Amino acid sequence: MIETQAPSTWYDTVMARFAFLTAPLRWIKEHPKTRRALFFGFFHLLGLLTSVDAILSVRTAQGAIGWAISLNTFPYVAVPAYWVFGRSNFEGYIVLRRKAEDELSEEERKLATDLLAMRPQAGEVPPPAILLERLAKMPATQGNHTELLIDGEATFRSIFESIAQAREYVLVQFYIIRDDGLGRRLKDALIERAKAGVPCYLVYDEIGSHGLTDSYLGDLKAAGVETHHFNTRKGDANRFQLNFRNHRKVVIVDGHTAFVGGHNVGDEYLGKDPKMGAWRDTHVKVQGPVVQCVQIAWVEDWKWATGSIPNLNWTPKPAPGGENGLAFCLPSGPADEFETCTLFFLHAIQSAKKRVWIASPYFVPDEQFTSALQLAALRGVDVRILLPEKADSNMVQLSSYTYLPVLEKAGVQVWRYTSGFLHEKAIIVDDYCGVGTANFDNRSFRLNFEITLLFSEPSVVKEAEAMFLNDFSKSTRATAADYTERPWWFRLAARTSWLMAPIQ
């Protein structure tokens, strides 16, 4: 009879009693080939299960096919990539303007009534506005005054002047805020108003403003400025998603003045970056009932970030001198019921009769947009695309070359701005124009929270036309030869970058 030594500790006792459970683990540890097989098998099973989710949830057939193949072929890379980049629906974000009638508060009902009272008569609303009203769940309004702000000096001079005059509150939202000269001017302006007893609120994108320092935020909070980041990873369904951005740039003062456009807060937006040089950008200052519509979009973002809604002015009033000023606010984002930004641009191009002029620093359209631009040009519409010659993204710049042959063949003109870096996001379609934050790429169409203001007031459209013509005069025409006559390695790099269009 063989005697066994009694276990000396409670741990040894437990391990001896449950040895049948740990034996498989010990066996796997002692057989490295089995470990590798189990590791690969686990990832392939995970890839298979994840591909089912991709097929059920990815919006486009091409995207679903691409993810399904990748997840089953290279699951070790594709599975983590899908968790981070795969989804295009933002979960949990509450769109206040889409609440059911019986869910509206008394204040919300009054705002809806007041805004509708400032909507033009049914026969006076342009057909594009009717579609946009259905997408945004907000009406086009008349009685607005619009001022086009060209480049950074004009934009921030006007913004800081308005903030200094604030008496009720200041609402601020930017994708990028830097702790540099311009950033500190914004900080000082908000601190001054907060110390004067004016409530100030700041929300910023956590990824776009990742370099914002603790001391910068600490100074704001110490002065009483309520400061929060827009956390796109908030909520269990968004935990691993790093692909969403809040790309909006908005300033609202007292509920009667709003600023929207392409500028972020950093010295480069004033042309002070020696690498990028002169910075070409556009903002708009608006007054009138459209400001309440912009404010609704800001409040939705603030509510996501904080769970609360501040006490604001919700009484829309016509702006002095804005009797004929028809304006519309189009917020868009991955929480929308439809792909709002996609549908707007598609409708704008497809409905154009005379012209479509688009300025965008990031031009990476998918096939449906390429076809829409071709069709517009083929039916005689003056289609012009204004892009930067100098780029801040090599991948986007390379991708843009691949479109030149197919666009030129249909008669679409592509121009490259050569007098600095072009960052504006503007559009003219026939007799209306728009300025906002949306680029002409998949990220803005499907993944970013964006906001665009549209105007049909003749004086505003004429001013936007003059702005475009001035930009074209500082640009050179891009041709198919810029791509087809380049070396093979350049064309390969461009096509490879183009394949990455969905996440650029």
A few lines on this structure:
This protein is α/β, with parallel strands linked by helices and 504 residues long. 44% of the residues lie in helices and 18% in strands.
Shape: globular
Number of domains: 3
Q: Calculate Rg over CA atoms.
A: 27 Å
Helical/strand content category: alpha/beta
Largest sheet: 9 strands, mixed
Q: Name the beta content range.
A: 15-25%
Indicate the CATH architecture of the largest domain: 2-Layer Sandwich
Q: Look up the CATH topology of the largest domain.
A: Endonuclease, Chain A
Low-confidence stretches: 1-7
For the termini, the CA-CA separation is 73 Å
How many alpha or pi helices? 19
| Strand tally | 20
pLDDT averaged residue by residue: 85
CATH class of the largest domain: Alpha Beta
- CATH superfamily (homologous) name of the largest domain: Endonuclease Chain A
Helix content: 40-55%
Subcellular location: Cell membrane
GO biological process, one term: cardiolipin biosynthetic process
InterPro entries: Cardiolipin_synthase, PLD-like_dom, PLipase_D/transphosphatidylase
Protein name: Cardiolipin synthase
Would you kindly provide a written description of the structure presented here, covering whatever features stand out?
- It is a single chain.
- The chain has 504 residues and is α/β, with parallel strands linked by helices.
- The protein has helices spanning 10-17, 19-29, 32-57, 61-73, 75-85, 106-117, 127-136, 152-164, 181-195, 214-222, 290-306, 340-351, 367-378, 394-401, 404-410, 442-447, 458-473, 481-484, 488-499, and strands at residues 145-150, 170-174, 200-205, 226-230, 245-246, 250-253, 257-261, 279-280, 282-287, 327-332, 355-359, 363-364, 382-388, 413-417, 421-422, 426-429, 432-436, 440-441, 448-455, 475-478.
- It folds into three domains: 20-85, no CATH class; 96-120 and 142-324, Endonuclease Chain A (Endonuclease, Chain A); 340-503, Endonuclease, Chain A (2-Layer Sandwich).
- The chain is built from 19 helices and 20 strands.
- The strands form four sheets. Strands 5, 10, 11, 13, 14, 16, 17, 19 and 20 form a nine-stranded mixed beta sheet that branches. A seven-stranded mixed beta sheet has the order 1-9-7-6-2-3-4, with helices on both faces.
- Strand 3 (200-205), helix 10 and strand 4 form a beta-alpha-beta unit.
- The radius of gyration is 27 Å and the shape is globular.
- It is found in: Cell membrane.
